[in-house]
Specification:
eleven-stranded mixed sheet; about 375 residues; binds pentane-1,5-diamine; single chain; 11 strands; alpha/beta
């Protein structure tokens, strides 16, 4: 009886194997005209997908997330159904090491030639040979302010030498609480910025360093009025926030949008003297992506000079596309908070490889900060 059951199971497994094999062989030749794309929220131009669909006939299912932690949890669980996901380079490294990603087929990506060799060599430090990642946009974590509100609220206190002091130094944060102080809402944004401020290495594994971060964050926690990765832009624009930790492009967008409001607010993204915390957001293909060919067609489309430039023009983050530079609106290409100078780039810390250990330390420290305990 047991034996018959076993044989039956074996037959079923083999049958499933044959069906599966046939299905994927067909897929390789003629892929269904679908692409499932998982991106950061507020991180695409209005016509990026529409133009791609019109040209290729590939229907894009678009889905968004607000933190690297959410994306990572999905990839770990597997079978996401996504073909392209947007992973910051340090996370993508850990995901590639964990076998969660599929190497690129560069023969399907001729437009890789458009990417700045200097930036490609920077990325190659986490992705040797640029095997898994194609850069979408890059930017840095920094501080943005409502110039008039901050000036009025600080009164006779002068602006600090280093912009990070506005949110990490309790003597400034305590004053600014009355006009609103906000932080990003994830360990992987707040902890690296805090380590950077304390001049500690972003990849530290020392408990004492995390204790120092905890102590510093606890001192400013009473003055933080908002912890959100999505709400700060509109709150800066309508004047309900005067200082915010945020991503360079989002802060620049808040500035642009604020000038269009009836009640104009003067928003300014700052470049901290000690540097921002730089990130590269890269398109990667999950190991079990169902539409691998379409994923490559999409990535190659993004690397067209006009398409990459349109992302920058809308989102105000830098792109790595050299021939695309001439399609970037001059005031954007010349804005040093969008395309920082070499010296400013060199002053920045770069988010390096993430590891399960760093995640655990970061998440513990952040939870403590967020709950205010
Ligand atoms: C835009 C998301 C920025 C991505 N809202 C930060 N890595």
């Amino acid at each position: 009886m047991e034996l018959i059951k076993k044989i039956k199971t074996m037959l079923a497994v083999t049958a499933f194997g044959i069906v599966f094999f046939t299905a994927s062989a067909v897929n390789a030749q003629q892929e269904e005209k679908v692409l499932n794309f998982y991106n950061w929220s507020d991180y695409i131009a209005p016509d990026t997908i529409a133009n791609f669909e019109k040209e290729t006939g590939i229907k894009v299912n678009y889905d968004v997330f607000d933190s690297s932690e959410i994306l990572h949890a999905k990839l770990m669980a597997g079978r996401t159904g996504y073909d392209v996901v947007m992973s910051s380079s340090g996370w993508a490294r850990m995901q590639a090491d964990g076998g969660l990603l599929r190497p690129l087929d560069k023969s399907l990506l001729p437009n890789l030639k458009n990417l700045d060799p200097l930036l490609q060599s920077q990325i190659a430090k986490v992705d040797p040979d640029n095997k898994f990642m194609v850069t979408w946009l890059w930017g840095y974590i920094t501080v943005g302010i409502n110039v008039d509100l901050v000036k009025r609220t600080l009164g006779s206190t002068p602006m600090p030498d280093d912009a990070w002091d506005l949110i990490f130094n309790p003597s400034y944060a305590a004053k600014l609480k009355s006009c609103g102080v906000s932080f990003l809402d994830s360990p992987s944004e707040v902890i690296p910025a805090a380590l950077h401020y304390l001049h500690l290495p972003l990849n530290t594994t020392k408990q004492a360093d995390y204790d120092a971060v905890s102590t510093m964050l606890a001192a400013v926690r009473p003055y933080v009025t908002l912890i959100s990765s999505t709400g700060y832009m509109s709150n800066l624009e309508d004047g309900s926030l005067c200082v915010s930790m945020g991503w360079s492009g989002d802060l620049n967008r808040a500035q642009r949008q604020a000038t269009m409001m009836v009640n104009k607010q003067n928003i300014k993204p700052l470049m901290p003297k000690s540097g921002g915390v730089m990130f590269f957001d890269t398109m990667v293909i999950p190991k079990d992506a169902p539409h691998v060919k379409n994923a490559h067609i999409f990535m190659n489309y993004i690397m067209r000079p006009e398409v990459h430039a349109a992302l920058t023009n809308k989102l105000l983050y830098a792109n790595p596309n050299l021939p695309g530079r001439k399609f970037v609106t001059p005031s954007i290409a010349n804005n040093p908070t969008i395309f920082p100078s070499e010296a400013e780039i060199l002053a920045m810390d770069v988010q390096g490889k993430v590891s399960p250990f760093l995640l655990r330390m970061g998440s513990r420290t952040f939870t403590k900060f967020k709950s205010g305990l």
